[in-house]
UniProtKB/TrEMBL annotation:
GO MF annotations, alphabetized: methyltransferase activity
Keyword hit for S-adenosyl-L-methionine: yes
Alphabetized Gene3D superfamilies for the sequence: YaeB-like
Protein name in the entry: Putative methyltransferase, YaeB/AF_0241 family
Gene Ontology process terms (BP): methylation
CDD domains: UPF0066 (cd09281)
Family listed: Belongs to the tRNA methyltransferase O family.
Top-level taxonomy: Bacteria, Pseudomonadati, Pseudomonadota, Gammaproteobacteria, Chromatiales
Keywords noted in UniProt: Methyltransferase, S-adenosyl-L-methionine, Transferase
Domain named TsaA-like: residues: 6-147
InterPro entries on file: TrmO-like_N, TrmO_C, UPF0066_cons_site, YaeB-like, YaeB-like_sf, YaeB_N_sf
Amino acid sequence: MDPIAFTPIGVVRSCFTDKFGIPRQANLVPAARARLVLHPPFDRDEALQGLDGFSHLWLIFVFHDCLGAGWRPMVRPPRLGGRRKVGVFASRAPYRPNPIGISAVRYLGAERSSDGLTLHLAGVDLLDGTPVLDIKPYVPYADALPAARAGFAPDPPESGWAVTFSDAAQAQLAAVDPDDTRQLRTLITQVIQQDPRPGYMDRYPNRTEFAMCLYDLEIRWRLGDRTARVDAIVPASRV
């Protein structure tokens, strides 16, 4: 069979500039913002006509950070703690025969800026630089199926951590997001509450310090007894 080639219609500019910290599904972190910048010749206003009537969109995208990694018939999903294997087609793992994914994200509108025609999104679970292959409107009467069974992931993950900010982190937060334009405090809180650590971290009970990148910042936090204290919000060296 001849290979099928696809041309990305745009690229995601996301608050998640590193894989660690990305929520495991869309809409678990409502404050997670991104922009989808459309490439020519797809950056035409008429291509979006009628889209303003929809609150959410399906994005079909490429797991670009996994290109060349190959596929795996069995994977260890995070919802099973990374300890039990299931078939790749029973998961949303990125190591697939064709490394594509889908996300239902909130649509906040479009504008034409210096970057070109741009869609504003929220509740994303996408790495910065993700190529998008297509956009489809989310249609609740057809796409939301309340009676559907969800296998080993019947309920959303619990938000277990109580997140606090040190005095130093609060001062740094005020300096980098003084008008709360990026909703940075909310974003940090929501991401940490989802416990972004890999499932195997219970093998390392003595490790309590972690760091992740959001936008151009490195967020450092420390775990206590069901609490997480953000200690530093500093420029990221690897962004």
